[in-house]
Amino acid sequence: MPEMLRTGTVQLKRVFGLDALITETLSEIIDYHVNLSVGLKGSLRMSLQETMTNVIDHSEVQDYLVCAWTYPKIRKGQIRLCIADMGVGILQSLRQSGKYNALNNDHEAIMLATEPGVSSRTSVAGLGLSHIKNFIEVNEGRMCIISYNGKVFWKYDQGKILKQKMSLPFNGTLVKLVINADKEAFYFLSDEEDYLF
What we know:
Helix content is 35%, strand content 30%. It is an alpha+beta fold. It has a single domain (2-182), classed as Histidine kinase-like ATPase, C-terminal domain (Heat Shock Protein 90, 2-Layer Sandwich).
């Protein structure tokens, strides 16, 4: 396990249902390469678990793909992580809930899905992608979500958000994260201010 954490390797793996070991391994890789508080590490673990739960709850498929890799020689180093499914997509999932019938396109659906509290579930949900997006912004990393005809690319290292129409639709949803492996900075939740002293 220590070698996997150091190299940040989770080779492309097909996952069926929820897999706590995958979630734990991904959060340990991030924690190994980024200086996180205990609270933020736990929060990111739950957010990754929520992102994978979204596949099971919303995409109408039971299997998905996960991979992660570190690139130590790029700038300060990067962790790249990807979760992909071949399900109904974000737009269709949100519309099926009945709460978001007014959504017109995949870009709107992707942008909305990254906001706190947005979910096709009736219970309190919608925290996974919004929390990950907030962390990526502070980390000045990148996040890309592709769903059917829509692609939204948050380039926080350049202060840009790009929306593109896919020339060929991606039948499902793909979430790609690029996290800066920064051991010099210390990342913590806003309610963990006692970590500063």
